[in-house]
Specification:
Two copies of one chain form a homodimer.
Chain A lengths: L2 E6 L7 H16 L3 E6 L5 H12 L5 H25 L4 E4 L1 H4 L1 E3 L8 E4 L2 H8 L3 E5 L2 E3 L5 E3 L4 H13 L3 E6 L20 E3 H9 L7 H9 L4 E5 L7 E4 L12 E5 L2 E10 L4 H11 L4 E8 L4 E9 L3 H12 L6 E5 L2 E7 L9 H11 L6 E5 L2 E7 L3 H11 L6
Parallel strand pairs in A: 1-2, 1-9, 2-6, 3-6, 9-11, 10-12
Antiparallel strand pairs in A: 4-5, 7-8, 11-12, 13-18, 14-16, 14-17, 15-16, 18-20, 19-20
Helix pairs in contact in A: 1-3, 2-3, 6-8, 7-8, 11-12
């Protein structure tokens, strides 16, 4: 008998009607002879409601108590889903993270899973019950309630699948799979049947917000077959798995992009050892996350240093650079918050040369100026003016024939 | 240092503003050097909201899952109160029933407390923290979440006070104490400074809904000094305690009444052994609770049998009696659902004769016909037509001089 872990996000359990629909979906699979563990998020809107209450009391709520508060969201959903299963004569039992138990460290609001005790869950599965588990939450060694941070329910599902050695972990969401690119930008975007963990990680980190990065990392590490599906439509979704020989044929799996970046450059920096850290340490000290980093030699004695940050951090980063510019003996600071990053992702790059030059030629043919380039083993990213985003994505999608199977 | 357990009901924590006020009240007491454990209910309205969700899914929700669902109500309050305490620099820590842990039996939706582990709470108190505990809930031996049923938060507070050997257990509510009778019926009703456990039990069971009966029983059994106070006004409230010599002076402590009763009589029943059980067993089989029971001999061979039930059960009880009437060889069934029960309660009755006759004379002087009489050691109850309720209560209140200290 196959064991499946199904995860249903906030939208999928956003109303009583949707919870009933989820119960029907689970029952159908169970009737086919499968063992099912269902991991649920809080009903959509609930987390915001609770956060709102907390903020009325403390502008910066106590982290431990915030976890106590927020963890009630999933607890409500899990009991309602279990009731919906009982209502259609499907035996079920719900557990909080603490009850399972999902042991985490004590970093409240962003805890990490250390260990999962699968005894209770297995016992219930053996009795033919569907086990409903609250996502996003756990318990530390002292018995305090912890939460895993935004999107933590995906991580709960994958960790449970790993612990139970489940056949597949299904992430039910409001999209029906992973696409070659955002269909709102390129209507010809095609749903992928398969994608590798590495590709998914690159896609996720670049703004394809289907899955949490931590969940994908976890799935990759413990070799959990992950499938992204729609909770509203039928379909096979997209399977995220290890690279297989047949997959090598695809050069590029998808095009990801990120509209939220801003670019900062400090020019004419004396090219001495330690200059990079002198620039980036003050930025990191202010908890600003840096994405792309590029350093180019301008002439024999000086260098130009460029990096990108989230647009929310743009003004603060700019201020920091301007403050250190003269200390470094640099020339000037130039910045731009009207840029986007576009990346092509694919494991096929490993074994095929010339993909980068194809990408650059496609953009050049469209008259798009490339402002920055950064590459990794399975990804090539470029920074361009934001006005070119749609044009660039569509041209690349066509050039790499992503609309075709 | 004194240890106090404070319990705040749903109205007392019904909004963010009220939770902040409760936090101030707690801090004030802590600043006076007291150790405080605060037991909280769900915010008013929340239990109904959750029950509504459940009923949309299951007309008769699964009991285990209902407990999982409802227990989130107190969990939300406890985290918000703990945050409110942090906000005013009062160290605090919140625990669910399971975290404490409050061990109960496995009777979901009406579990009973078996044992309280006070290690965690004591440790926090010793560190100078206010401990906020979710009322109404516990955990069974298998780790399932249980709830204690309506008003269970009072029981949690008393049980915690017993376990911690607290100096007093304060029940904060929306009234400022226990009154000699309902002030809406007799405006001269006076707040009592003290009342005995036994009197409080009789008052509570007769419709003075200030405290849960189970909580009072528990407090009596474990000798927990219980105090009922208003969470909105200052004041000493009413202390519920063991009988003391000074209290013997009061003949009557209060007048309780119950508008929800109906009376059923079966007349001309052959007076044979076992007849009472033949009448009451079919009633009990239908889960109808019987309150007063009176049997009178009509003549040598037959008897009249009368009992009262809650008005909600009136029609069903009537049907049962009519069905068994001919089997019993009885004459007829007469019923009345326009009656009320009025009781005078006081430990003074034990040592003073003539209280019953005073009561009957007062009612006779007002022209009120007594339909049934029942007495216990510290209580005399009469059933009268409901139209006489106010008249009877006011006359008795005056006759027993309850408006005077």
């Amino acid at each position: 008998m196959a064991v499946f872990v199904y995860k249903f996000g906030g939208t999928s359990v956003g109303s009583v009607e949707r919870i009933k629909a989820v119960a029907e979906k689970i029952k159908k699979s169970r009737d086919q002879g499968n063992h099912i563990v269902a991991v649920v998020s809080a009903m959509s809107g609930e987390t915001n409601r609770l956060t709102g209450l907390a903020k009325e009391i403390q502008s910066s709520p106590n982290n431990r108590e915030m976890d106590v508060l927020l963890s009630t969201g999933e607890q409500v959903t899990m009991s309602l889903l279990s009731m919906a299963l009982h209502e259609i004569n499907c035996p079920a039992c719900s557990y909080t993270g603490g009850q399972v138990k999902i042991l985490t460290d004590s970093m409240h609001t962003k805890a990490r899973i250390r260990e999962i005790d699968d005894v209770k869950v297995k016992k219930d599965l053996d009795k033919g019950r569907v086990v409903v588990v609250a996502g996003f939450q756990g318990i530390d060694e002292e018995g305090n309630i912890t939460t895993l941070g935004r999107g933590g329910s995906d991580t709960t599902a994958v960790a449970l699948a790993a612990a139970l050695k489940a056949d597949e972990c299904h992430i039910y969401t409001d999209v029906d799979g992973v696409y070659t690119t955002d269909p709102r930008v390129e209507p010809k975007a095609r749903k992928l049947d398969k994608i590798t963990f590495e590709e998914m990680l690159e896609m996720a980190s670049l703004g394809s917000k289907v899955l949490q990065i931590r969940a994908v990392e976890f799935a990759g590490k413990y070799n959990v077959a992950l499938r992204v599906l729609s909770s509203f439509e039928e379909g096979e979704g997209t399977l995220i798995t290890y690279e297989e020989s047949e997959m090598e044929r695809a050069l590029i799996s998808g095009i990801a992009f990120n509209r939220d970046e801003a670019k900062l450059t400090i020019t004419g920096v004396p090219d001495l050892p330690g200059v990079a850290s002198k620039i980036l340490c003050p930025v990191a000290d202010k908890n600003i996350e840096v994405d792309m980093i590029i350093q180019n030699i301008a002439d024999d004695a000086t260098t130009d240093f460029t990096f990108t940050v989230h647009r929310n951090d743009y003004e603060r980063a700019k201020k920091i650079l301007e403050d250190i510019c003269s200390d470094l003996g640099a020339k000037e600071v130039t910045t731009d918050d009207t840029i986007v990053k576009i990346s092509i992702v694919g494991v096929g790059m490993r074994s095929h040369a010339g993909i980068a030059s194809t990408m650059f030629k496609v953009l050049a043919d469209e008259g798009i100026n490339i402002r920055m380039i950064s590459t990794s083993e399975i990804k090539i990213s470029v920074v361009v003016d934001e006005k070119y985003l749609e044009l660039a994505v569509r041209a690349l999608h066509k050039a790499f024939e992503l609309e075709q199977e």
